[in-house]
Write a structure and sequence with these properties.
By secondary structure, the chain is of the alpha/beta class. About 50% of the residues are buried. Bound molecules: pyridoxal-5'-phosphate.
C-alpha cells in the first residue's frame, strides 16, 4: 500500500518512506491510497489474542512494505512484557453504573501518547534500515507537556536517531517538567524555552521550513523529522486499540459480534478520534463518534456548522492537552470526506493559513454529521463531572476523560441513542492530580504535586504509576534554557 499527500502534488511513498518523512514536502499529510477492509471473522479472530498480536494483525494491513518479522519485532519492543503496567495494555473497564472506559494510560508516562510513541520509534528505526537511509534523523518536538515525555521515553537510545524536546519554561506542570528534565538516554536533549507553547512550536516549525538550514544539515548527514501526530507512524498504532476494545466487549458479552457501538473521545489535535474513523471505515461496527472538547471548542463549532474559525480567545483549562485551536489531523478527514479532492483540501488549508478560517461545502458537512457528534464542557462542568463519577462509581477520572464522559451523556440525553458507549480515557488521574483533587474536595490545594500523589491515592486506591512515584527525588539531567529566537542556533550547537 502506498501513501500520498492530502495536498496532492507528490508521488506516492511506501509506509517506511512516509514515516521517515513525517510530513509531505507540499505541506500536506500522508494518507493511505486506499483503506483496507476487514470482515467480522477478522474481528472474531482478535478475541483470543493478546494486545500485541492484535496490533500485528492490524499493522500488517497498512505497513505492507514491512515484513512480518519486522512488525513482530517492533510490536514486541513496544508492548511486550513489562512495558505497560497491566498485561492487557489497553484494558476496558466496566463501572458499577454500566459505563465502559477504554483506559489508554498504562504506559510509561501515564498518558495515551504512549500507545503510539512506544511504537513509532521502532517503526522509524526499522524504516531507516529498510530504505538504506544513512542520515542521522533528528526528531524535534515542541510540547505542552504530554507529548515531550512520551516521545523521549520512546526514542531514548534508539540507534541512528536523536531527539530534542522544547518545552515552555513555566508552562508545564511540575510533574511534567520533572518527567522531562530527569530523562535518561544518550541521544536525548531537553530545553526550556523562555516563552509560551506557541513560541516553542513556531520556533520548531520555522526550523522545519528553513530550506537553507535543512540543506546545511543534510551536508552534515542529518535529516529532521517529527514525532507529532501529523506522522502516519503515530496514527496507525492508534487504530489498534479501537479494534481491541471492541474485541474485549464481544469477549465479555457486553455486545454481540456485529453490534454497533459508539466511542466518546476527548479531542485536541484530532489524532485519536481520526484513528477511530479509520477503524470504522475498515469495517469495525461503530455507529457514532463523539468529539469532546473543552472551552477551546473550535471543533464543536466546526462539526455543527462546517465553519472552522480559529480567530477566538485561547483559554488555559484543566484539560491542557486539549488546549489547541489548530487541529492538524482534520486535514486527513477532509481529504477522505471530500472524495480525495486535493484541490479543495489545498484551498481550505490556504484559507486557514491566510485568514484563520475556512468553510467546507454542504455535502462534506452532511457526511461529517452522519459520522460525528460534538459537544464541549467548561472547567466548572468538568470538575463537577469528576466529582459526580466519584460519587456514583467510586472511580477517579482525569479531566480529559471527564470531558469525554460529559459529552457522551449529553449525546445520549439529546438523541435517546442507547447504543453501547465506550468512553476513551486518555490520562491517569495522577498526572493531573491537583485539578482532580480540587474537583473532588472543592478546595484550592496548597500542597505540591508530589505530596498530592499520596492524597490522591487515599481517595482513588489506584496504584501510583511507577514513573511518577519516584519523580520527586529524581536527578535533574537537563538544565539548558534558551530564548525563543535562538532555537536554530541551539539545535545546530547540539549537533
Ligand atoms: C494529546 C491528548 C489528548 C488529545 O488527543 P488528540 O489526538 O490530540 O486529539 C487528550 N487527552 C490527553 C491526556 C492527551 O495527552
Amino acid at each position: 500500500m502506498k501513501y500520498k499527500s492530502t495536498r496532492g502534488s507528490e508521488h506516492a511513498l511506501s509506509a517506511a518512506e512516509a514515516i521517515i518523512a513525517g510530513i509531505a514536502e507540499d505541506g500536506g499529510l500522508f494518507v493511505p491510497e486506499e483503506i483496507p477492509i476487514v470482515d467480522l471473522s477478522f474481528i472474531e479472530s482478535l478475541l483470543s489474542l493478546p494486545y500485541a498480536d492484535r496490533a500485528k494483525k492490524i499493522l500488517q494491513l497498512f505497513l505492507t512494505d514491512y515484513t512480518m518479522e519486522e512488525i513482530e519485532c517492533c510490536v514486541e519492543t513496544a508492548y511486550g512484557e513489562g512495558k505497560f503496567d497491566v498485561e492487557e495494555v489497553a484494558p476496558v473497564q466496566v463501572l458499577p453504573d454500566g459505563t465502559y472506559l477504554l483506559e489508554l494510560w498504562h504506559g510509561p508516562t501515564s498518558a495515551f501518547k504512549d500507545m503510539a510513541l512506544q511504537l513509532l520509534p521502532q517503526l522509524m528505526a526499522t524504516a531507516l534500515k529498510k530504505t538504506g537511509e544513512k542520515a542521522q534523523v533528528v526528531i524535534l518536538v515542541a510540547t505542552s507537556g504530554d507529548t515531550g515525555k512520551a516521545a523521549l521515553e520512546g526514542f531514548k537510545d534508539v540507534g541512528q536517531i536523536r531527539i530534542m524536546v522544547f518545552y515552555p519554561q513555566g508552562g508545564v506542570s511540575e510533574i511534567q517538567r520533572m518527567q522531562m528534565v530527569s530523562q535518561a538516554g544518550k541521544n536525548v536533549s531537553v530545553i526550556a524555552v523562555k516563552g509560551n507553547f506557541d513560541d516553542a512550536q513556531t520556533g520548531v516549525k520555522n526550523i522545519f521550513n528553513d530550506q537553507d538550514y535543512n540543506l546545511r544539515l543534510s551536508e552534515k548527514g542529518i535529516r529532521l523529522s517529527s514525532a507529532n501526530s501529523i506522522n502516519w507512524g503515530r496514527l496507525v498504532p492508534q487504530i489498534v486499540y479501537y479494534f481491541s476494545a471492541y474485541a474485549d466487549l464481544v469477549k465479555t458479552n457486553a455486545v454481540k459480534l456485529g453490534d454497533q457501538i459508539n466511542f466518546s473521545v476527548p479531542t485536541g489535535n484530532f489524532g485519536n478520534i481520526l484513528a477511530a474513523y479509520y477503524a470504522k471505515e475498515m469495517g469495525l461496527p461503530i455507529q457514532k463518534l463523539i468529539c469532546a472538547s473543552n472551552a477551546n471548542h473550535v471543533l464543536t463549532d466546526f462539526l455543527q456548522t462546517g465553519v472552522y474559525d480559529k480567530n477566538r480567545p485561547f483559554y488555559k483549562t484543566i484539560s491542557p492537552s486539549m488546549d489547541i485551536l489548530i487541529s492538524s489531523n482534520l486535514e486527513r478527514l477532509l481529504y477522505h470526506l471530500s472524495g480525495c479532492d486535493q484541490v479543495k483540501v489545498r484551498s481550505w488549508m490556504r484559507d486557514l493559513k491566510e485568514t484563520g478560517r475556512y468553510q467546507i461545502d454542504g455535502d462534506c458537512l452532511q457526511k461529517m454529521k452522519e459520522l460525528f457528534w460534538a459537544d464541549w464542557s467548561d472547567d466548572v462542568r468538568t470538575a463537577a463531572t469528576i466529582k459526580e463519577i466519584y460519587t456514583i462509581d467510586h472511580y477517579v477520572v482525569d479531566p480529559h476523560t471527564a470531558v469525554a464522559w460529559q459529552a457522551a451523556r449529553a449525546y445520549r440525553d439529546l438523541n435517546g441513542d442507547e447504543t453501547t458507549m465506550a468512553i476513551v480515557s486518555t490520562a491517569s488521574p495522577y498526572k493531573f492530580n491537583k485539578s482532580v483533587l480540587e474537583a473532588l474536595d472543592g478546595l484550592d490545594s496548597f500542597k505540591d504535586e508530589f505530596e498530592l500523589l499520596d492524597a490522591l491515592y487515599e481517595r482513588s486506591r489506584l496504584p501510583i504509576p511507577k514513573g511518577l512515584a519516584n519523580l520527586k527525588n529524581a536527578e535533574v539531567l537537563h538544565k539548558q534554557e534558551c530564548l525563543k529566537e535562538d532555537l536554530p542556533k541551539v539545535v545546530w550547537t547540539l549537533l
